[in-house]
Every structure is written in structure tokens, then in C-alpha cells.
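lol ok so funny story. i was supposed to be doing the assay writeup but got distracted and ended up predicting the structure for this chain instead. priorities right. anyway since i did it might as well share w the group, maybe its usefull for someone
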Amino acid sequence: MVVAALLGVVAATTIHDTIARTRPEGSRASTLSIMLGVATLTTVWSDVAVRTAHLDDAIALAAAAGAAGAIARRRPWLAVVLLAVAAGAKPWAIMFAPLALAVPGRDALRRLAALAGLVLVGWLPFVIDEPGTVHAAASFKITNATSSALRALGFANATTPAWVRPAQVLFGLAAAALRVRTGRWHAVLMATVAIRLVLDPAVHHYYTAGLVVGVLLWEGIARPHRVPVVTMLSAVACEATSGAPHYPALAGVIRLLFLVALVILAARTAPMPRRGTAAAPGTDRRTAMGRVRARAGRRPLALRRRARPATFP
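and the output, tada:
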């Protein structure tokens, strides 16, 4: 319980640092927005740390947040290790694997191979001891809740359909890979967790923490000057439709529509600026402006005079 609570602090602090490094605004409004988002995360994290004491989920979410922070610091190999920790704690966290490719470089494929190797090493002792582990994890069945998004989609099976677990991973990996490929790595956690919840037959309260982690990371970077309305709405919508609501069918529809809206937001969000065209992740704006001025200072005097009115009106 204590460890899970501390991991919540780690996740919140890491997300705050990632947002600050990726979008260093330096204004009180931006700081207030981040603090409101972190407060929302802290509130829903209690379901993971206290009410259910799901240490495995806490490890996976904190490691995923740490991987995003490593990407912002341009430390891709640290991200690889943290992604392996996340997948080792919760098999569904393998959906975050494409984040290993978020930082461009010639060693991108080696990073992905290393991640696969680390995940296999982590799970190999369990598979050797009990060869049915993989099948059990893929075919684990739970009750299909009447308020689940899966039922709202029209799948009224009493328990988990056999195709659900593989579909969650495949669709999650595809969405994550596409987000990374299009420069929207900051939306990976939001998109993949939302897809998982759309196809999940359960509606546990502790699921909310994973969704809020992803939405907070995305919103803090994509909407840095605004109140984190989407993050707070995610917490409210997911909590209100979890457990045993009074109108389960309506709750399932609301849950489905909200999660699909998050997936669409992840697809339509503005991509991160490419290195060389804007401040790179982890680069302070003063440093970037200093480089621009230094380049301008190396120009011939005549060109500098001609360019000055257009560049610095």
C-alpha cells in the first residue's frame, strides 16, 4: 500500500517534469494547470494504492510515466528499460512498446529488439515453471459488466469473449505505433489505455488512474495554458461509470462515447515539433532563442540589417 502510494507520487512528479521540459511555458497559468491535473491524478490514484492495493498496476503506470519522461530528456535507452518494467508488471502494458521508437536515431530498431528481449527475460522464468502461463493470461475470463463499453458495443457475452485480450493488445500497439510515427508520442498512453477500456468487460474503479495518467500527459503538453478540463472530465466520467451505476446501460454508452472521443483526440492532436524546427524536448526556450541569435550574429552585417525587421518586429 505504501509502495503503491509512493509510486503515485513518482508518476505525478515525472509527468509534471515531462510537461515542463517539453513545453516550458514558465507562466503561472501553465503551472496552475499542471497542479490541477496532478491533484486529479492524486485523487484517483487512491483506488490503485489504497482501495485495491494493485501494486502491479502502480508499477506499470509509474514506469510508463517514467518512460515518457526519459523521452522528453532524450534518453531512449532509459525509456526502453522502463517500458520493459511496465510490461513485466502488467502484460497489457506491452501496448506502450512503440514509445521505444519515439526518439529518432539509427539505433531505433536495436532499442525495440532490446525491449522485446527484456520483456521475454522477465517472463521466461514464469513460462518455464508453468508453460500454460501465456495461454492463461490471454484467455483469462471475467464477468462482462452491464455498464461496460464492451456491452455498449453490442457484445453481450456473459464473460470475456476469447478475442478480447489479443484485440486489446493488437489495436493498442497499432494506435501507439501510429501516434509515434506521426510525432504524437505524448498521446500514446491516452490512446492505448482508452482502447483497452473500450474493449474491457470490467469497469473497476482503479482503471481510472491509468486513463488519467495518459490524459494528463497529453493535455499538459497539448494544452499547456488551459485548465485541464479533459483530465478532470476523464476522472469523473470513468469513476461515474465504474462499479455498479444505477443505469448500467446508459453508463456503458457514456463510457464508450467518452473513450472513443479520447482516441479521436489522440489522433487529431498537433504533432510534437521536430528537432531543428522548434525547441526540442528538454530544450529551454531561452537556449533555443540564444541559438537563433547566435546564428543571426554569424551572418554578414548587410544581411543582418535586412533580416532584423522581419525577424524581430
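The two ends are 57 Å apart (CA to CA). The chain has one domain: 2-271+288-311.
back to the writeup now i swear
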